[in-house]
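Next up, a specimen:

>
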Amino acid sequence: MLVDSKNKELGTEAILMIAAQETKSKYPASTIYAAMVKEMNMQGTSIVRNGNTLFVIHNAEGRVGVFRALNADTARNYLESSYAFIQGAYKMGFDTLVSEFEDPTIMNIFKAISRNPPQEGMGYRAEKTNRGFRVTVKLGPKRAERE
């Protein structure tokens, strides 16, 4: 069950457990939870928390990251957290983020953010894949590659 972060901030473990239950997976929540913990501890991974949502970013190459959200918050707060995350990821040095997911309702977040982008030059491209969707988000103006 989702928990409004404006009323109660959850611990990381609780967020992971709720996110595991909310993920409409064929695997049990305990298996999903264990996979999330393992993923969060991978080398080159950053975790950003906003409300009751954790954003997991894997540094890919240069200023590109692969991310996903582990959400235990209400829809309104999830959207607000996603908005803040996009701004924060650009400040962290990312120019482009890529995410893959199965749930088509997640597209609504990208659509809502693109209607009022937090950065000039921000936008996204969505593609249908065999397993769901892939979204590539341009966070803002492209900068020189990292050294």
In short: DSSP finds four helices and six strands in the chain. The first strand starts at residue 45 and ends at 50.
